[in-house]
Design brief:
The chain has 199 residues and is of the alpha/beta class. Helix content is 23%, strand content 22%. It has a 6-stranded parallel beta sheet, with helices on both faces. Residues 194-199 have low confidence and may be disordered.
Length: 199
């Protein structure tokens, strides 16, 4: 199954310093997603889009405001920046999310209340994209929410499993759910040609 072409988009979800090991909300093994994402981004996608958590300092998801997470990805901070080792030359658009103080935003499409949109859906429609290849952090939160919304919006969706990592150690439940929604769970070696892999 080819995942490249003008109607395919690579979505890079929240590969930011605070979600890497040593960050405020570091995902174990999170740095390992960067090399496969960089390799994927060099492929002929119609567009490459990256999302960024971009929170106000008093965001509702932070522990100080009664939320479940430590303070992370505060707008303009080092923790909110995309990882320096992420090759940004192929990224055509960066969309920020979680900017509303009273609502969190896991999906790259919408805030969790599904009232505020990031504009990703409109961008993809204008570019005549119909298949999304999703990567990034973390599989069981922002990647999964992005994939769920993409399926609800009618996109064909693949997640490249070696280009994502989860917070939970056991990902069986989330993988089963995503598969049942029609999300393709793939390994990078199945979506990059063997000829390219030998380069």
């Amino acid at each position: 199954m080819s995942l490249f072409g003008a109607n395919h988009a690579l979505i890079i979800v929240d590969v930011q310093n605070d979600f890497l090991p040593g960050g405020a909300l570091g995902v174990a093994g999170g740095s390992a997603v960067i090399a496969p994402i960089n390799r994927l981004a060099a492929q002929p996608f119609g567009v490459v889009v990256a999302s960024q958590d971009w929170h106000p300092a008093d965001h509702c998801s932070f522990g100080a405001q009664g939320g479940p997470w430590p303070s992370h990805c505060v707008a303009g901070s080092h923790g909110a920046a995309l990882a320096s080792s992420l090759d940004q030359r192929s990224i055509g658009h960066i969309l920020r999310k979680g900017m509303h103080q009273k609502c969190d935003s896991y999906s790259a499409f919408f805030d969790n209340d599904h009232i505020h949109s990031t504009g990703l859906d409109g961008l993809l429609r204008n570019l005549k994209i119909d298949h999304l290849v999703i990567t990034g952090l973390a599989l069981d939160y922002c990647v999964a929410h992005t994939a769920r919304d993409a399926r609800k919006l009618g996109f064909d969706v693949s997640i490249v499993m070696d280009a994502t990592r989860a917070i939970a150690q056991d990902i069986t439940m989330v993988c089963t759910e995503l598969s049942n929604l029609g999300v393709h769970l793939l390994q990078k070696k199945t979506v990059i040609s063997s000829e390219d892999s030998k380069r």
